[in-house]
Automatic annotation (TrEMBL):
Keywords: Hydrolase. InterPro entries: AB_hydrolase_fold (IPR029058), Dienelactn_hydro (IPR002925), Dienelactone_hydrolase-like (IPR051049). This is Dienelactone hydrolase family protein. The lineage of its organism: Bacteria, Pseudomonadati, Pseudomonadota, Alphaproteobacteria, Sphingomonadales. It comes from Novosphingobium decolorationis. GO terms for molecular function: hydrolase activity. Pfam families: DLH (PF01738). It comes from the Bacteria. The keyword Hydrolase applies. Residues 64-290 form the Dienelactone hydrolase domain. The keyword Metal-binding does not apply. PANTHER family: CARBOXYMETHYLENEBUTENOLIDASE HOMOLOG, CARBOXYMETHYLENEBUTENOLIDASE-RELATED.
């Protein structure tokens, strides 16, 4: 999986990312990327955004998720898939920044079959032996079939919300292990999902029949595949195979290797690279502008 760094990788990144104190300060009032609006509770007056935890019934249970959107109007819906550390403060801040751009953003707890969020409080928690042991069985439940079922449920949830403009297409974005889940969301609801963005995604090209690249022709979405330079070094053929698959499927796809390492878009990752994260964010804004 993409989230399994070598010890050498980790050692080179010890100075990167935000420590917990810095991240707490950021979460209190600053935007991570883009221009975040002021978040408020569902009943608070004078806020640019509204946010709350919601429950979504799926075929496999009840998923808890974070839902944030502009306080007025109807907006394109976005399904956000977290990285291996799951739904936590980092993802909520990223969702607020995206919502402030005019989207209704649903950040899902992909581990809902096993535990409510937060499963871990930061990416660094997963780097511990305890964190890895905790996550391992939860990952096993995330089969391609399970993720596709979930994607259908999440799209249906957004389409039923009064805050979502159902006359426009839905988008999806995902980080690390969530990258290929964006493709499976597009597979789950091809008539509804119009754009998907994968950032340092893993498992996009596996060589298996159910590999996301092999299934692009089952979707009707446009794509952004933002690849980390060290992921590209490990799997240099990935970008070429993605381009070939998109061409066969007739999908518009922007595929680029960024000058940053795996995890660069996520602020509590050791590889966080703000400049390249901002560049990737801007490309996602162009993609989602087509919804």
């Amino acid at each position: 999986m993409c989230d399994e760094f070598t010890e050498a990788d980790v050692a080179t990144r010890r100075e990167g990312g935000l420590n917990r104190r810095q991240f707490a300060a950021l979460g209190a009032g600053a935007a991570l990327v883009g221009c975040a609006g002021k978040a408020g509770s569902a009943g608070e007056e004078g806020s640019d955004l509204r946010e709350r935890m919601v429950s979504i019934t799926t075929e496999d249970g009840v998923c808890d998720a974070f839902f944030v959107h502009p306080s007025t109007g109807r907006h394109p819906g976005i399904v956000m898939w977290p990285d291996i550390a799951g739904l936590r403060d980092a993802k909520k801040i990223m969702a607020r920044a995206l919502a402030a751009e005019g989207y209704a953003v649903l950040v899902v707890n992909q581990y809902y079959r096993s535990s409510p969020a937060p499963v871990l409080t930061s990416f660094s928690d997963w780097r511990s032996e305890e964190g890895k042991a905790k996550i391992a069985p939860m990952r096993e439940a995330l089969s391609p079939e399970a993720v596709t079922r979930d994607g259908a449920a999440f799209v249906a949830f957004l389409d039923a919300r009064e805050e979502v403009d159902s006359s426009r297409k839905i988008g999806s974005n995902g980080y690390c292990m969530g990258g290929p889940f964006t493709v499976r969301t597009a597979i789950a609801a091809p008539e509804r999902v119009g754009a998907a963005a994968s950032f340092h995604g893993a498992g996009l090209v596996t060589g298996e029949p159910d590999s996301p690249d092999a299934l692009l022709d089952e979707t009707k979405a446009s794509y952004l595949f933002a690849i980390a330079r060290n992921d590209d070094a490990r799997q240099p053929e990935q970008k070429t195979k993605l381009r070939e698959a998109a061409a066969r499927a007739g999908c518009e796809a922007e595929i680029e290797v960024y000058d940053a390492d795996h995890g660069w878009c996520v602020p509590d990752s050791p590889a966080w690279a703000p400049d390249e994260a901002d560049r990737a964010w801007k490309r996602m804004m162009v993609l989602f502008g087509t919804l």
